[in-house]
Design brief:
The protein is of the alpha/beta class and 275 residues long. 29% of the residues lie in helices and 33% in strands. The strands form 3 sheets. Strands 1, 2, 3, 4, 5 and 11 form a 6-stranded mixed sheet that branches. Strands 8-7-9-6-10 form a 5-stranded mixed sheet. It has a 4-stranded antiparallel sheet with strand order 13-14-12-15, with helices on one face. InterPro entries: ACT-like_dom_sf, ACT_dom, Preph_deHydtase.
């Protein structure tokens, strides 16, 4: 399969795609999330997509929720990927040789505690961690290092001169597998992503949530978004977790009369947190 991802070869999106779809997965690199969604929708260059949706430290990637809602695409699964950042350089180089470290601003921030130990090293922001690794490889500079994934070091033939330099060791990003076509949920499906809109009335959201709880459904995520055409009116993204698909379907029947709109993005198997 060819999977659309945001970023360059060797990025964390590629790792997530390979974990979900298999090691032989080919990638279609996209420079932005809207481009990723477009390529999955059109279907000529990608069979499906893998899109980051939230991080355990930085929180939700809010624009991606709106992108997903308006795309007409379906969620078919999810992957939790631990974000391990490594300092890498040309083979044979040591950290004492490095004068500049290049990476995405978020990666530099995630590794701030380690980098503070080397005040003489200049930090240079780039648009992508994997692209930074690629540039070190292409430029053959012995004084420049990159912060990126282990996969990037393997692809661009760089040595990891300082592994796992991120400050927070429990840093996970959640990725959603998205497709043009919905799939029939497996018997062991235990999670669903839905959108719903409630009337602009006092207690309307509380009524919906109480019905969900009454069926033993857990909410691992609920996020509100304003509706531009209607002042002070919101729709909600909810990730529901359940043990029995029958309880989930019963909960939907109970909340549907209480909502102005209810859309199921996907019913799928909950992803595992991998080290």
């Amino acid at each position: 399969m060819r999977i659309a991802i945001q970023g360059f070869e060797g990025c964390f999106h590629q790792q997530a795609a390979q974990r979900y779809y298999g090691k032989q997965t080919e990638i279609e690199a996209c420079s932005s999330f809207p481009e990723l969604v477009k390529k999955v929708k059109v279907g000529k260059e990608a069979d499906a997509g893998m899109m980051a949706i939230e991080n355990s430290i930085a929180g939700s990637i809010l624009p991606n929720y709106s992108l997903l809602k308006n795309s007409g695409l379906h969620v078919t699964g999810e992957v939790y990927l631990q974000i391990n950042q490594h300092l890498m350089a040309l083979p044979g180089q040591r950290i004492e040789d490095i004068r500049e470290v290049h990476s995405h601003p978020m990666a530099l921030l995630q590794c701030a505690t380690f980098l503070e130990k080397y005040p003489n090293i200049k930090l240079v922001e780039s648009e992508d961690t994997a692209l930074s690794a690629k540039n070190v490889h292409q430029r053959k500079s012995k004084t420049i290092a990159a912060i990126a994934s282990k996969l990037a070091s393997e692809i661009y033939e760089l040595d990891i001169i300082a592994p796992n330099i991120h400050t927070a060791k429990n840093n996970y990003t959640r990725f959603l597998a998205i497709s043009r076509n919905g799939v029939e949920p497996a018997e062991d499906a235990n999670k669903s992503s839905v959108y719903f809109q409630t009337p602009n009335e006092s207690g309307s959201l509380a009524k919906v949530l109480s019905m969900i709880a009454a069926e033993g459904i857990g909410l691992s995520k609920i996020q509100s978004f304003p509706i531009p055409a209607k002042e002070w009116t919101y729709y909600f993204h909810a990730d529901m977790e359940f043990e029995d698909l029958k309880h989930f379907r019963k909960a939907l029947k109970r909340i549907e009369p209480l909502t102005d709109q209810l859309t199921i993005l996907g019913i799928y198997k909950k992803g595992l947190t991998h080290a």
